[in-house]
């Protein structure tokens, strides 16, 4: 069983149809897959392909269906947490949550229970009725986490989540990921924070120049680069040198 399966022959943009090539991987329930690679390796393009945001895609992307609650409704339910906050200047934090809940089709009771829990977790309860344009970058990033976790998704697609977060917020985010994984959700996370990725990810996709150059567990990655005791950082360097 998988929550997402990608079999992408090529994908890209108008005039650049093959930014990524031969991208094949799966994310299963409870897995945290780290998407690793240098700038320009194709990580963001891979994420956009999963989200259906690219004009040029050859291949297939199949979601497991359902919302992680076992009801088998067949609909792909994923949450996307972007690298940079995307917020409306004239809306308060609570209004952002209400808008997202409406788009997700959450009942009022489910929305309020989940929203209150997340506001407490990320210590934003007292500013719920403040305009988000007045918030710091770190606070805005916390809002993106709250929006991402507002609906209990089957798959979380997370792009560079640690940027702008203080250590306590990172701890809270990782604890939340663990809870969702225990529930059966899968996670695909792009990050450059390799020491943290090495500790928390169950497997890795290491990209370079638009393709996957190694994938699997850390031991699999070590075998691919011929360094049996290496750290993820050392494997990253060995496999992407010159990229």
What is the CATH class of the largest domain? Alpha Beta
The chain-level mean pLDDT equals 93
Total count of helical runs of at least 4 residues: 8
In the CATH hierarchy, what is the architecture of the largest domain at level 2? 3-Layer(aba) Sandwich
Q: In angstroms, what separates the terminal alpha carbons?
A: 34 Å
3D shape: globular
- The secondary structure category is alpha/beta
- Helix and strand pattern: EEEHEEHHHEHEHEEHH
Strand content: 25-35%
Main sheet summary: 6 strands, mixed
CATH superfamily of the largest domain: P-loop containing nucleotide triphosphate hydrolases
What is the radius of gyration computed over CA atoms, rounded to a whole number of angstroms?
Answer: 18 Å
Write the CATH fold name of the largest domain.
Rossmann fold
> How many domains in all?
2
Low-confidence stretches: 66-74
| Strand order of the biggest β-sheet | 5-6-7-3-8-9
Q: Report the count of strand segments.
A: 9
- What fraction, in percent, of the residue positions are helical? 25-40%
Describe this structure in words.
By secondary structure, this protein is of the alpha/beta class. It folds into two domains: 1-77 and 153-162 and 184-243, Rossmann fold, CATH 3.40.50.300; 84-151, no CATH class. It is 37% helix and 25% strand. It has eight helices and nine strands. The chain has helices at residues 43-51, 93-104, 108-121, 137-149, 167-183, 194-200, 218-225, 232-240, and strands at 4-13, 16-27, 32-36, 56-63, 78-81, 155-159, 186-190, 203-208, 211-216. Strands 5-6-7-3-8-9 form a six-stranded mixed sheet, with helices on both faces. It has a three-stranded antiparallel sheet with strand order 2-1-4, with helices on one face. Strand 6 (155-159), helix 5 and strand 7 (186-190) form a beta-alpha-beta unit. The longest helix is centred in the C-terminal third of the chain and has 17 residues, at 167-183. Residues 66-74 have low confidence and may be disordered.
């Amino acid at each position: 069983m998988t929550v997402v399966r990608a079999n992408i022959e090529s994908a890209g943009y108008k005039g650049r149809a093959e930014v990524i090539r031969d991208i094949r991987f799966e994310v299963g329930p409870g897995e945290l897959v780290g998407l690793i690679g240098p700038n320009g390796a194709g990580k963001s393009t891979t994420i956009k392909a999963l989200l259906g945001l690219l004009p040029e895609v050859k291949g297939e992307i199949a979601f497991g269906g359902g919302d992680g609650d076992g009801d088998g409704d067949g609909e792909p339910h994923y949450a996307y947490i972007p690298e940079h906050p995307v917020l409306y200047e004239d809306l308060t934090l609570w209004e952002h949550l209400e808008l997202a809940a409406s788009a997700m089709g959450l009942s009022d009771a489910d929305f309020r229970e989940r929203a209150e829990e997340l506001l407490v977790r990320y210590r934003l309860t007292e500013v719920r009725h403040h305009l988000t344009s007045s918030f710091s970058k770190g606070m805005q990033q916390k809002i993106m986490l709250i929006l991402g976790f507002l609906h209990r998704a089957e798959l979380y697609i997370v792009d560079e989540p640690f940027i702008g977060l203080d250590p306590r917020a990172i701890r809270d985010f990782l604890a939340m990921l663990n809870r969702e994984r225990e529930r059966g959700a899968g996670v695909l996370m792009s990050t450059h924070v390799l020491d943290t990725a090495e500790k928390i990810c169950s497997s890795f996709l290491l990209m370079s120049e638009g393709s996957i150059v190694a994938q699997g567990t850390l031991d699999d990655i070590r075998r691919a680069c011929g360094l049996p005791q290496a750290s993820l950082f050392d494997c990253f360097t060995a496999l992407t040198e010159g990229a």
